[in-house]
């Protein structure tokens, strides 16, 4: 299937053709259900395997991989809720809600994400309230709602009175509307624009109150590692596109040449650099995925040591500096392989830099470096919170990473 997605990716971006059909095609393969545990009828694939497949999907179409972000994190949350041994002899019964969600995910239903709002960082204007008949209603406006324009369900944060809650709402109702108003210069097909909720109905079983201090950094790590997998995939697609651009060329640039560009050592060096960076980015991402995946599994078993979530968190933070920095540097130089013709809209080589630059802006590297430096100097961990996690008032702590940044501003 990936072979069929890659050739049209540049044209889809250029023409801004949203990925409704492509998202459904990917879901139909079971991509979104790979991490469902066997207790819920799933394939139970290792986390690093799913991330490797996500890199492959991103190499075919970075937008299509990016929109999986909220869905994969949501499924990982379901997995953590399903304790090892649940439903077995002597084990706790699996809650009906988890079985219902497993059926939905296996059927290909898709979950989008909508945390951030265009207002003061850490504040929520989206409200969950009760109608006169006691049913729940949702009202509010979200931005950076990546994937929600394609979704059957949207996972989001809201306030119920003064309490922050997480909830999942069906998009199959008039009160939920996503529009394509994302105006960033990269990742244009992710639907990372506005979603509004107006008297939208919410099932009581879909509301999660309170937070889990253990799960928060782990699910936050999933959100961020998905972005890094997309960056690694872009590097691989950029390499393939650059090779396809250079190989048939006969005309050199700057002066009359006696050999085609593919035989020019300077061109070869640029392509070689991109090859090394693409391989390195994948390796770093998969190494972090192996670390995080191991902690996710041990946490689910109740076996994780206290320091393991910290180590997984830091591994992702370090990769958030290294991977985008390497890839952006190589993508900025790939235009050296072809002179003026390399900036044409036909090859569309510029889209790779724009897309990675957009993804990397989600959590600026300088913030990650500062957080890492603070940890190395005094042992202070960066603060994480997940949708529904308790918060001090409604404002994120100074320098902390709130749900609005680590699970929310998902451009």
TrEMBL record:
Keyword Oxidoreductase: yes
Annotated transmembrane regions: none
Gene Ontology MF term list: acyl-CoA dehydrogenase activity; flavin adenine dinucleotide binding; oxidoreductase activity, acting on paired donors, with incorporation or reduction of molecular oxygen, reduced flavin or flavoprotein as one donor, and incorporation of one atom of oxygen
UniProt key word DNA-binding: no
Residue ranges with Low complexity bias: 385-403
Top-level taxon of the source organism: Bacteria
Alphabetical keyword list: Oxidoreductase
GO BP: any one term: fatty acid beta-oxidation using acyl-CoA dehydrogenase
Gene Ontology cellular-component terms listed: cytoplasm
InterPro entries listed in its UniProt record: Acyl-CoA_dehydrogenase, Acyl-CoA_DH_C, Acyl-CoA_Oxase/DH_mid-dom_sf, AcylCo_DH-like_C, AcylCoA_DH/ox_N_sf, AcylCoA_DH/oxidase_NM_dom_sf
Residue ranges annotated for the Acyl-CoA dehydrogenase C-terminal domain, each copy included: 226-363
Protein name listed in UniProt: Acyl-CoA dehydrogenase C-terminal domain-containing protein
Organism: Agromyces seonyuensis
